[in-house]
Amino acid sequence: MSDTPVIGVLALQGDVREHLVALASADALARPVRRPEELVEVDGLVIPGGESTTMSKLAVLFGMMEPLRERVRAGMPVYGTCAGMILLAEKILDPRSGQETVGGIDMIVRRNAFGRQNESFEAAVEVAGIGGGPVEGVFIRAPWVESVGAGAEVIAEHGGHIVAVRQGNVLATSFHPELTGDHRMHALFVDMVRAVK
């Protein structure tokens, strides 16, 4: 089907397999992306959760950082979850040494804002643009968004903190929707990719 978008999952580190499953459930052709030549072949990209500092360093090491920035600037749809949200921010509060971002959303994020691994939790999150009730979000050492610029749209909050943002073709959530079996966030992203394909 020509209308089926090809969506990559950045496979340097993190929960890649779960995103591949969620994207396939949302009618996309999903594949792992590790190298610049694989990035060229996709219509959109998911940057998964994981450890943002490690992902940043691996992206530089694998020669992916600049090609990622170029594709995002050129309008490729991207969806970042947890660590992926951090990588899509223009600015990180207290970044680790050498930590770079891809950028794409005019926002400032705080790493590990919801606490350490043992403070992980699940919560129902109302997301603007997603019908059918709240999305079940899994928060694991999750960031939150301290502030957004004029171009960014806040689409969800939890506990008084911004946890989902969209700016043009770029979408980011603090939480992991891929761990719940609820694929509505991925379906929203697949629709975003289809709209520009």
Task: Map the helices and strands.
Elements (H helix, E strand, L loop, with lengths): L5 E5 L5 H10 L3 E5 L2 H4 L4 E4 L4 H10 L3 H9 L4 E4 L1 H6 E5 L11 E6 L10 E5 L9 E5 L4 E5 L4 E6 L2 E7 L2 E4 L10 H13 L1
Parallel strand pairs: 1-2, 1-3, 3-4, 4-12, 5-6
Antiparallel strand pairs: 6-9, 7-8, 10-11, 11-12
Summarize the structure.
With 197 residues, this protein is of the alpha/beta class.
Give a quick set of tags describing it.
31% strand, alpha/beta
Explain this structure.
The longest helix has 13 residues, at 184-196. The protein contains six helices and twelve strands. The protein is of the alpha/beta class and 197 residues long.
Helix/strand/pairing class, anyone?
A: alpha/beta
> Share of helix among residues?
25-40%
Terminal residue distance: 13 Å
Side by side, the strands of the main sheet go 2-1-3-4-12-11-10
Average pLDDT confidence is 93
Which sheet architecture does the biggest sheet show?
7 strands, mixed
Q: Indicate the overall shape.
A: globular
Q: Strand percentage, roughly?
A: 25-35%
* H and E order: EHEHEHHEHEEEEEEEEH
Annotation, overall tally of beta strands: 12
Unreliable residue runs: none
What integer value in Å does the Rg equal? 15 Å
- Helix segment count? 6
